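Researcher: Here's my situation. A collaborator sent me these components and asked whether they could plausibly form a single complex. I don't have experimental data yet, so a predicted model of the whole assembly would be a useful starting point for our discussion.
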Amino acid sequence: DTAVSQTPKYLVTQMGNDKSIKCEQNLGHDTMYWYKQDSKKFLKIMFSYNNKELIINETVPNRFSPKSPDKAHLNLHINSLELGDSAVYFCASSQAPEGRVNGYTFGSGTRLTVV
Amino acid sequence: SQQGEEDPQALSIQEGENATMNCSYKTSINNLQWYRQNSGRGLVHLILIRSNEREKHSGRLRVTLDTSKKSSSLLITASRAADTASYFCATGLNQAGTALIFGKGTTLSVSS
């Protein structure tokens, strides 16, 4: 009974393609996030939604567009993929913003490889 | 911008030994959290310590927080091979429009 599930787990695609990553949580959390982890394991916040409303939109290329159809889902669409987009993308959710009650629950990640 | 810096970057110990990892940060915080990441997996929340707390325990984990030095430490006692993972600190500012900021992590290897 996965708490935060991401699909797909692996994604290999060519430069210039458009792809989407889906995330769903069944924890009843109000806040969801997308983080990017680079090859040196550095995690950087990309977006955050609180109850379907965008609250954080960090400096990422506008080729990246998040969508939250309801508070249990946060998807990430990427247009015109570039080699530098290769990374592991993590979805996370929390009961309160910044996980200040009991932390974040992370998905298992989507490893995106652009060739 | 990066807030937390873990030290050391890598740590190798034998089973049964204690492992200590440190985290330093730059600005005032509301809370500090520690996470574990096993290879190829997502991060798992270990412990949260608030800015008005100095020490917290959870099983074999002990976390301290020194807000005057802007630093925290994570102690894992009696390490096991299964503790092999990367450990990250993350800081929460309790400001509107912010999310946890993660450090670069410490890679712990525990050999049997």
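Model: Some features of this prediction you could bring to your collaborator: Chain B is about 0% helix and 55% strand. The radius of gyration of chain B is 13 Å.
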